[in-house]
């Protein structure tokens, strides 16, 4: 029987474990390993019939990971720890010749910058080991990449522009909290914006560009241009693309809190001295903020994430919108996690399922849009993330 090793017992890890357990014919034995065993125990106790084995691991340490992968004889590693651990886990997969999947691209803890460079550089080593690495199999990146590949395959001869639109209209009742890991989330949204046009990256100030978008089942929302990692791979793989942008919704209260925290230095990632101890402000802030995994129970409302693609089919201009709406309360009722974790964990499970079934296969390191989107889209509908495709009148 197969063994699936899931690393990271946070909000996303919980969803992946639940969903793999629901597809146990594919995933076989499930091993959940993370830094804090208590979190693994909680998830294990939610699935008493699933026979989940739990382990502790420090995923920053490649050697420790190699021992764990060998000990459990893993057929695949699903990395849903933090982006800081991507490289150490990839290296352990290379050493043990074990297929690898993650949901977010590598970030160095001391530098608020993310790019695929260091992960793509491991392509040769993955090839030599004869294994596949699937990068960014969450929602965005992840499903948004697959939406682009699906639009390209079925709706266009050439796509000229893509806008990725990410709306979370969830309300958890707190004045300020983040829906996934606070450090990763706040680093992403406080960074300068960037989009790609005519072969060049154009930088903007944080939150400089705003667009109001009418999200189906949610309504009109202020959406701000951010840099987001899937654009780096999409500009390589969607031929003929002239512009790609990414927008995310933020409410007034969130932005005011964030600005204030930034102004007083709480978003800093450099160490500061406090009463003879060194602390990193952003890490301290994470300690104060509600644990994202605890928000599930309180969150109401919906998410709507999708892409608007515009281009040509048979010589005619065309514009389509592909999107997915999830309801926080329904997600919680199913797997005890809110929709942000749900919409990340389900695609992680689907990516791993397609790899194990051999429907997506290859040797080397890949992004999601490089594979046939149809099999992934079929799974989305079956596994709890139905999507819609609408033609937009021009
Ligand atoms: P959480 O902070 O809730 O969970 C992260 C988990 O990883 C925690 O259980 C944590 O352990 C564990 N962990 C951290 N460091 C280590 C380590 N050194 N060794 C072992 N375990 C470790 O994050 P989320 O679940 O919200 O996010 C998980 C991943 O999903 C992140 O990479 C995030 O960027 C990504 N993501 C991707 C999205 C997408 O759409 N593509 C959207 C949202 C998230 P401990 O409990 O001890 O802290």
What would you say this structure looks like, in words?
- This protein is of the alpha/beta class and 394 residues long.
- It contains 15 helices and 18 strands.
- It is globular and about 55 Å long.
- The mean pLDDT is 95.
- Bound molecules: NADPH dihydro-nicotinamide-adenine-dinucleotide phosphate.
- NADPH dihydro-nicotinamide-adenine-dinucleotide phosphate binds next to α1 and α14.
The percent range for strand residues is: 25-35%
In terms of structural class, how would the helical and strand content be classed? alpha/beta
Give me the count of strands. 18
- The coarse silhouette is globular
Report the sheet with the most strands, covering strand number, pairing sense and barrel closure.
9 strands, mixed
How far apart the termini lie comes to: 53 Å
Parts with pLDDT < 50 across at least 5 consecutive residues: none
Mean pLDDT: 95
Helix content: 25-40%
> Bound small molecules, which ones?
NADPH dihydro-nicotinamide-adenine-dinucleotide phosphate
Round the Cα radius of gyration to an integer and report it: 20 Å
Number of helices: 15
What are its keywords?
394 residues; alpha/beta; seven-stranded parallel sheet; 27% strand; binds NADPH dihydro-nicotinamide-adenine-dinucleotide phosphate
């Amino acid at each position: 029987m197969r063994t699936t090793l899931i690393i990271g017992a946070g909000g996303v890890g919980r969803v992946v474990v639940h969903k793999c357990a629901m597809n146990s014919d594919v995933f076989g034995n499930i091993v959940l390993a993370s830094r804090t065993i208590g979190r693994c125990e909680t998830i294990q106790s939610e699935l008493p019939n699933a026979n989940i084995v739990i382990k502790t691991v420090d995923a920053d340490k490649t050697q420790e990971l190699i021992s764990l992968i060998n000990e459990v004889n893993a057929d695949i590693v699903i990395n849903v720890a933090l982006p800081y651990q991507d490289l150490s886990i990839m290296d352990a997969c290379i050493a043990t010749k074990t297929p690898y999947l993650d949901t977010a691209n590598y970030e160095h803890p001391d530098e608020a910058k993310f790019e695929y460079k260091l992960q793509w550089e491991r392509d040769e080593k993955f090839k030599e080991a004869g294994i596949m690495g699937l990068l960014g199999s969450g929602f965005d990146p992840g499903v948004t990449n697959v939406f682009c590949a699906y639009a390209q395959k079925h709706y266009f001869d050439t796509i000229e522009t893509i806008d990725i639109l990410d709306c979370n209209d969830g309300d958890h009742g707190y004045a300020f909290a983040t829906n996934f890991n606070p450090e990763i989330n706040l680093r992403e949204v406080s960074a300068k914006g960037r989009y790609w046009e005519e072969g060049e990256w154009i930088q903007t100030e944080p939150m400089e560009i705003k667009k109001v978008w009418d999200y189906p089942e949610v309504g009109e929302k202020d959406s701000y241009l951010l840099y987001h990692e899937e654009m780096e791979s999409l500009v390589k793989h969607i031929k003929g693309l002239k512009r790609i942008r990414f927008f995310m919704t933020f409410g007034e209260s969130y932005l005011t809190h964030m600005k204030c925290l930034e102004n007083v230095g709480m978003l800093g990632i450099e160490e500061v001295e406090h009463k003879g101890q060194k602390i990193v402000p952003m890490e301290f802030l994470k300690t104060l903020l509600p644990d994202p995994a605890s928000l599930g129970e309180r969150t109401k409302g919906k998410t709507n994430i999708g892409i608007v693609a515009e281009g040509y089919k048979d010589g005619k201009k065309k514009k389509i919108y592909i999107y997915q709406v999830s309801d926080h309360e329904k997600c919680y009722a199913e797997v005890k996690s809110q929709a942000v974790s749900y919409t990340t964990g389900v695609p992680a499970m689907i990516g791993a399922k397609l790899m194990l079934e051999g429907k997506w296969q290859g040797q080397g390191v890949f992004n999601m849009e490089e594979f046939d989107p149809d099999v992934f889209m079929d799974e989305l509908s079956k596994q709890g993330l139905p999507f819609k495709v609408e033609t937009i009148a021009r």
